[in-house]
Design a protein that fits this description.
61% helix, three-stranded antiparallel β-sheet, 15 helices, alpha+beta, elongated, 14% strand
Length: 599
Amino acid sequence: MNSIKFFLLSALLLFMGKIGFAQADSSTTTKDSLNLVLLENYNKRLQEIERQRVEDSIKKEELYREISALKTTDNLKKEELQEQLLAITEKENERLREKKARIDSLKSTTKGYPVHGFFNDTLFFLYSKIGSFSPKERAESATSKIHRLGNLPDFNHEALVTVNAGSTEDIVYGDLIVMSVTETDGLWNDSTRDALAGEYRDKISQVVTQYQEETGYLNILKKVGLAILVLIVIAALIKYISKFFNWVSVRIQLQKGQKIKGVQIKNYTLFDADKQIDVLLLVNRIIKWFVILTAIYIALPILFGLFPWTEHFASTLFGYITNPLKRIFLSFWNYLPDLITIVVIVIIFRYVLRLTRYLKNEIARGNLVLNGFYRDWAEPTYQIVRVLLIAFMVVVIWPYLPGSESPIFKGVSVFLGFLFTFGSAGSLSNVIAGLVLTYMRLFTIGDRVRIGEISGDVIEKSLLVTRVRTTQNEIISIPNSTVMSSHTINYSADAPDKGLIIHTKVNIGYDVPWKEVHDALIEAALRTDLILKEPAPFVQQVSLQEFNAVYDLNAYIREANRQGSIYSQLHENIQDVFKERNIEIMSPHYLVQKDGGSR
């Protein structure tokens, strides 16, 4: 099964590698085509300049011959010929300046063709053509001839010399012309033809000598021995790493019931002893394989670095780690000024928020009084200002966030804004209603209120809902938008200062004098504990029915939240007083006759 997985994984990696290479080859082909067009345009102009140079050189030779043939007395003719020579020389200098200017303009956009050594290492680049040979063909030819030199068993670096061939400087080994260097090559490298040819000769001599030394039989045998030693060390290291972690695994299992007793958070058992051991063993295995793979990853570049054919693999493997770390460090270093800016902005806003919170506390305590601003407004106003300040801080910080200008970042921001807008559409009306209720001061926490058909004490007031506890100890959550659309009665608002009037009605027959009823009702009110003596209770006759009068007892209280118990005691006292005075309280179905009968 493992072999099948390995085969499938290898096939997938091979397929992905082919796709990557195909894309890379396509991209490289496109760049090479563009590069060839740029160089071709340059080379066409170069041919014109070269043709003019040849003509000027011929003309120059003719002038030198004429000057040599003149007699010493023909000074006028000699001066005329020398002026022509100076003009040709100036023209040649102008030609060099034009070539140099064109080359400088091409350096930023044109890619040279590399001449490779023996292990795909680049020695130098060629940009210009010679005759019908393009720069690419010249680079391939030079690479091939350098490889031929490396295969010569009796290569002598002193026999590799440069020879002046007129318009070129040739690098020659015996009868083999390795490559030719032109004046244009020198201009591409900001050097002269002769100096550049000598530099290329030294590089070729050095790389051929180094190749023959590294691929010598004795050297290869030494490196094979070192490779075997590295493999032995790796195998031993893996063996002892496995033994160590196996020992740790056994020690973990032996600690069951001793140091490993499970993990508890208060009364909740997160892991019992068996599960905790399983987790620790899993962590042990993960660390074990991480250490083994790290050791192998470090050893492979060392192993590859022993042989010149695989040496580039070592740098590639190390590059998988060093390149990301380098990019991370450079990205952090480049982002450091923006990070410092964000830190400064956060610190400034933090102190602004602290100042705002201090002002809120002073207003809430009553130490700071603002005309028209109530103390209970302090907390909600602070929360609103806090949200606005944080939102403004985010807006200020936004441009300094890494990737804030990228299309992906913008797309995610728009998507989150879209979700927030439509997701909060139903709650927005409640939030606005909550803000309006706060500043309307309809009620505060602890007030006895009646909202629509719901009566009780306010226990919570948030941006979204108002929670009321009824006299039956029920907690009812009312959306703020519903509170806004309903009528609200606040029993507690003026009760501490002006008192709250409670009232109850009784039906008394006409055979009882009204003054006696008034006295009885007022006495019952005064017997009730929480009813105020001042202002005094009073009675109103609200209606005269067919067989009885309706009396309305009114009394002042300050404990609006205890209306239920006050009403209950008041009704008890009314019954007691009326019984003491032999006054009957009539119901709608009980009528008293004048002769004392009843029906």
